[in-house]
Sequence to fold (497 residues):
Amino acid sequence: MQPVLGAAPPTPRADRRRQRVTFAVLAVSVSSFALLQSLIVPVLATIQAQYDTDQATVTWVLTGYLLSASIATPILGRVGDAVGKKKVLVATLVLLALGSLLAALAPTIGWLIAARVVQGLGGGVMPLAFGIIRDEFDDQVTFALSVIASLTAVGFGFGIVVAGPIVDGLGYHWLFWLPMIVTALAAVAAFVLVPESPSRTPGGVPLLPAAPLALTLVALLLAVSQGNKWGWGSPAVLGLLAAAVVIGTLWVRVETRVAVPMIDMRMMRLRGVWTTNLVAFFVGFGTFASFGFLPQLLQTPPSAGYGFDATISESGHLLLPSALASFLVGFTTARLIGWVGARRVIATGTLISAAAFASVALFHDEKWQLYLATTTQGLGSGLVFSSLAGVVIASVPRAQTGVASGMNANIRTIGGSMGSAVMAGVLTASLGPGGFPDERGYTIGFALLAVGMLAATVAAAYLPDDRSSRPARRTRSALADADNAELGYLPAAPAPQ
Fold:
């Protein structure tokens, strides 16, 4: 917040109070979006029956949300960098609440899918929250980022946990009413309580590069999410993949030639950016695919030769220890990073997750084995999620925070989509009695997720490990000028004589 001319500067106590309030608003905002990513996953069959539709149609309740979020996350992050993070955060929360309201009132499956597309625009919450934290939290940036980032994994897992009890007790419409109420209150709180950032990316919002970026993401994610249904060799999937390559190449050429790019390609080549993006891809590949298929493993009846015939609520309980472990780890990673560096923390987290997935692949005859594995995986993913955002944000100038963190979150989404597609392909390749996947499908599938996390460990070895930070107490206007100079928008200020 810019100081008022002639007004006394805020006291340290007032600064801390403002930080706590801002943190609470951002935590609620990020948690709401993360929950909406997964609340629907366990109840797709209920929605299919409610609207008397088929499985191919009801999957668009997930696909529409995924496509919308993939476009909104980097673009709204960039818009926030240009016009103000608070303004865009409030608008994003309003859209998230509106989408939830439309979904709660949906009379048809088409209406529900359209509402989920509106909800997906809430993907901008994450990069905007990260940018506000960097602007406002000074020497508490690492801790605040760690906790907020861990909420993305916690919310995804917790959404699967609470979906069953909400549906059983209130009905599936309350999967939308509750988030609508919470996000509407968060929007009001953000408007009233969150300060606006003085840092801006010069040049406004570039519209020309946004179109090919959006088309590239739609083509890629649509092909990946529908490949198992349409066939990976089908003309539709091959055509979409080819379109993603062609339009993506065009997008890169446009970005390198326009005066004001949507995504600065110089930024994407920074070591702290491309390495975190690579880690994020493989982490998404393993983590989100496992969340989607572990409940399915528990819900399989023992007549298939494995499984526990669990209900939706019972299978959701499997992810509760994982979610809690991830959340609690988020409070410790700032100190761990200060001791050993982010690179070691992230590499340790990916190795722990790899071991957990390997354990599920080999040992899933007893529930306690799965609970132990998922709790271990929660510890690993907590270390990774709560550390990764800090690395990418520390690697870019302040005016690029939103777009850099938005692209990182989006690449993690792409990885999750590909991991889910691979897992679904493995499981459906060989079906046993009753149409359930053969047990070896889960063995192979979770072994592949473990390999993905090992690949993330290799990528983590290339992360920068600079534990020093820029001075935290410089004025925000000085920081904004220094960041713009880093980007080449302004000449660097001469050193004082």
In short: Confidence is low (pLDDT under 50) at residues 1-8, 468-487, 489-497.
